Amino acid sequence: MENIVRFSVSIEGELLDEFDRYCKENHFATRSEAIRQIFRQTLTAQAWESDDHETAATLTIVYDHHRANLADSLLHLQHEHTDLVVATTHVHLDHDTCLEVIILRGKAGKLRHVASQLKGLKGIRQGQLVLANAQATP
User: Fold this and answer.
1) pLDDT band, very low/low/confident/very high, at 69 (cuts 50, 70, 90)
2) What sign for the dihedral angle of Cα 31, 36, 37, 42?
3) 24: phi > 0 → left, psi -120 to 50 → alpha, else beta; which?
4) Residue 34 — φ and ψ, nearest 5°?
5) Are residues 31 and 20 in contact, defined by beta-carbon separation less than 8 angstroms?
6) pLDDT tens-digit map of 101-127
């Protein structure tokens, strides 16, 4: 089991009430679980700023699959970056619209670059990159 360290924090009562509502709405078992997750998210976001940090990410894109050459361009870019692209999931939302989730892993700077290339293709309606720290955290 990991070494658990206890510490105290001084906080205004109103802020604590708001935090307790947050914990309840998000179904955290304890305040400690919520604080651990917030710490991890904050540290991951900070690490993301470093281009050399090992990162995992998902790129979710929504696009019109009838757009000329878009599917070929998506595949071409993914094949150019096989060192970063781990897997993809393709879903048909309606007759014209597809959603694709591209799972990526590598240096943060490279992931941002390939995500920008993919999101920038003509015909992409929406694109969002979501990161996760790929290195072990306590």
Assistant:
1) very high
2) positive
3) alpha
4) -65, -45
5) yes
6) 999 999 988 998 999 999 999 999 999
CA trace torsion 28, 33, 38, 41 (10° rounding): -100
| Cα–Cα distance, 138 to 40 (Å, whole number) | 9
Which pLDDT band holds residue 44 (cuts at 50, 70, 90)? confident
Q: In sequence order, what are the residues at sequence separation of 6 or more whose Cβ sits closer than 8 angstroms to the Cβ of residue 108? A: 47, 48, 49, 50, 51, 52, 53, 54, 55, 131
* Rounded Cα distance, 134 and 20, in Å: 29
Report residue 128 as tokens. 């969002």
C-alpha–C-alpha distance, residues 72 and 91, integer Å:
17
pLDDT higher than 70, residue 58: yes
In one-letter notation, the amino acid at residue 132 is A
Six-digit token string for 75: 């595949």
Reported confidence tier of residue 136, pLDDT bands at 50, 70, 90:
low
